[in-house]
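Continuing from the previous page of notes. For each protein in this section, the sequence appears first, followed by its structure tokens. Read the first protein now.
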Amino acid sequence: MLKPELKQFHFYRETENGVFGLFDTAAQIVEAAKKTREKNYQGFDCLTPFPVHGLDDAMGLARSGIPWVTFFMGLFGCSIGFGFQYMVHAQDWQMNISGKDLNAWPAFIPITFEGTIFMAGVFSAVALFIFAGLSNVFRKPLHPDITSHKFALWIPSSAPGYNESDVLNFIKALGASEVQAVKSEKK
């Protein structure tokens, strides 16, 4: 991740039709993701109750672009914090306090640091909400066990080569404990 690439800034696109299968362990979902990727299903997702190491590699996802947002917004916060203090003390409101230089940059460090952390943190959270599509608070969960102790593999109907019966059989062959097709209730 030496330079930003467009594929790092991928947006989650939610679908309402597809098939999901429930798995019992993290190792099973990683293996299922690898086989799903080998089968060339695109746009599939893995839903887990906690972060699973290696799952993003198994799914073939590029690294997130959020560290770039954090870095550049941290630079912006640093520049604003230092620049504001310099403009106030050295340009706009010049006061000789204890014989210090008007550009007493060591005194500017705490506010510069706080500005850096504040801007980087706030805009990282904003970027997370935007990229992950977390603004939909009325989303209906696929299955109540996914958020507590089960792992799910979701293959949307928009995936190239999607055939519901083939996908149902494929997920069953992966060793899912439960497989279910989901159809939208909207007309």
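Done with the first. The second protein uses the same format. Note its length before scrolling.
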Amino acid sequence: MNTQRCTLLLGAFLLGVVGLLSAPLAAHHGSNISYDTENPWMTTATVVSFEYRNPHPWMTFTRVNDKGEVEEWTGELVTNPTFLLRAGWTKSRSEAALKPGTVVELTLATARAGGFNAVVRTIRNEQGELIVNSGGRGGDAPAAPGEAPARGRGAGARGGGAGQQ
């Protein structure tokens, strides 16, 4: 009887530990909570910096708003370095393609908290090549130039909206 009780208590304890440890994993993926993903918009931007890091790469960029004013934004890519690598976008290739001064076309979802912060869903270079495609709701795999997106709504998911330039 005592052995059965200890086994039952140990099992309950381990189940509770697994539950507690898995909660942060579910909480991490909150793009729809943090960003207005229902209203993506596009803009032409100039890369200031790009950081290839986990769990998501970040970039700083400038854009000119409708009034002709320069705004400096920060953006977290929906995709992660693993998906970038699978599509052939190594750290050195990504940093070369997104070096400071590079002009890109971005599809963004603005932060619900306001400010000049957004999640970056797609990045195209001046030649129109797709560097990153996260046009769907999740961390879609980026498409190598000329390839179809791995999943999601794809390159046609440009959406118009307020702030489009």
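What the second structure shows: Strands lie at 41-51, 58-64, 70-77, 103-110, 117-125, 130-133. Residues 140 and 151 are 6 Å apart (CA to CA). We return to this in next week's lecture.
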